[in-house]
Structure formats: C-alpha cells, structure tokens
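Can you please make up a protein's amino acid sequence together with its fold in token form to help me picture the idea?
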Amino acid sequence: PEPGGEAQDGSAGRRWSGQLLIGHDGKLLRRPAATEKAVPPVGVSKACSSCVRTADVKEACTQCDQFVCQNCSRLCSCCNTVTCSLCSTIDYGDVGEQVLCNGCSIFQV
C-alpha cells in the first residue's frame, strides 16, 4: 500500500481493511469481497469468537477475521470498523467511553 493506506490497484479512495493475503508473486492481495460478510462455509464453526455461543453470525472482526455475534461486536469510534473484544480496547478518557480497534489505539496515546 502507498502512504496513507490507499490501494495501488486503481480503486481510488478505497482503503485497505481487514486481513490481507500475500500472493504467489509477493504482492498484497485483498480477500474477495464475497467472503467479508459471508456465512461461514460448511464445517466451519458458526460460534461467536467472543462468547462461543452459536448465533446467526453476519459479521467478522476486521482485525482477526473471526466471526462475531451482534451482542459481542464492537464498532471502532475512530475508523468505524467491526471488531471483537480481543481486538479492541475501551478508552475511558475525558470524553467518555470510546471503543478503539488495535490499529487505531496505537495512535490514541
């Protein structure tokens, strides 16, 4: 990715989010868009990665790609991405509670 996190593949204005894969040529690749908010394949656990209860999982954590139920998902107040409880922290600052993903929490010192 170029400075600022913008993709080099010609998709102007789109940013890298989620886990990237390394292709056979050594370049970073995005996961196909169909897998970002898809139902897990047959044989894969449909349990929430945080509470381990089976639920209608519709979202995956953008940091670790684990499925998260609606009750356990957290929305980063900085970049508005969905994260699980393991990949986010809560900042109890002067402004009140702020959920920050691991990527944004390093910039909020």
Q: What stands out?
A: Confidence is low (pLDDT under 50) at residues 1-7. DSSP finds one helix and eight strands in the chain. The chain has two domains: 1-31, 34-105. The two ends are 25 Å apart (CA to CA).
